[in-house]
Amino acid sequence: MAAARPGWPLPGSSALFVCDLQERFRGSVAAFPQIVAVAARLLQGCRILGVPVLVTEQRPEVLGCTVPELGAQDLPRLPKSAFSMAGAAAPLLGDPKIRSVLLCGIEAHACVLQTALELLARGLEVHVAADAVSSR
Question: Which residues form the Isochorismatase-like domain (predicted)?
């Protein structure tokens, strides 16, 4: 296996976090179809590489479920009521092998930002997929 380099995520030490790609945001988030399409490709690649994936839904009883075109129907979707995904990710973040997180989803200025800041504070590397992140 290749030696880890700072800033380079590797399959054995990374996780993908998909933040709140839900039905209610479909009509109000900029470039929503494109964001979901790129996130779906990231998800597909992570499946092939065996990278663990976390999918969250912000207050699903209000904002609806994860959009089907993401292709995450077989994955557990963890509900959350805080902006950061880190609370929902506690079991995954407890794995000492996980050193970096690939992050995508919405809303960039709230949930994605708070997740990135909390993960960085925990000492993890964070890689935001800029073309898979957006806001209203």
Answer: 14-136
Overall domain count for the chain: 1
Q: What is the mean pLDDT of the chain?
A: 92
Three-state DSSP class for residue 23: helix
Pick the catalytic residue from 80, 97, 104, 131: 80
* Residue 19 appears among annotated catalytic residues: no
**20 belongs to the catalytic site:** yes
pLDDT tens figures, 17-58: 999 999 999 999 999 999 999 999 999 999 999 999 999 999
pLDDT for residue 7: 67
In a domain, 43, yes or no: yes
CATH value at residue 39? 3.40.50.850
Q: Which domain holds residue 38?
A: 18-97
Give the helix/strand (H/E) hosting 84: none
